[in-house]
Amino acid sequence: MKNRMLGLLLVPLGLAGCAVHETARTMDFDLTLRNYGSALRWAYFDTAASAIRPRAGDPPPQPCVPRTDVRVSSFQPRDVQFSPNLDEAQVRAVLAYVELDTGVVREASEPQTWWYDEKAKRWYVAQGIPRVLCKAEGDTPRKPAAPRP
Q1: Which residues, 6 or more positions from 121, have their beta carbon under 8 angstroms from its beta carbon?
Q2: What domain count does the chain have?
Q3: Which of 35, 69, 124, 128 could disulfide-pair with 61, CB 3.0 to 4.6 Å?
Q4: b/e map 37-66, b = 16+ CB within 10 Å
Q5: What is the pLDDT of residues 86-135, one digit of tens each?
Q6: Is 60 part of a structural domain of the chain?
């Protein structure tokens, strides 16, 4: 009887342990996304790049030369969907950015796949820096429009 009671007490504790694990992983994910978004907003592209890593066997992301004519004003992860075992998340990343030479605010959205590296105990994004923040090949900086008389 004692063993049975002990077993009944341990089952909820085991389930609580799983919930703590899930909560910790999703909290790590939220913190990683917040730090990644902050790095993009402050134009710390080297810091943002530290969160980029394709899974083993996947092709590397396209190289990015950051644009100097834009500033990110917000990074919002939307429509986050976790895999059942919480080792991957699909995110729609929405960026608002300002074109410095015109002052125009634009918004761009792109899908991102985030994955959890069990060995490193951290989240990575499989894609590179959002493409809207990268110079296209052969791009030259635009000159600001001349003031009107």
Answers
A1: 28
A2: 1
A3: 128
A4: bebbbebebeebbebbbbeeeeeebeebeb
A5: 999 999 999 999 999 999 999 999 999 999 999 999 999 999 999 999 99
A6: yes
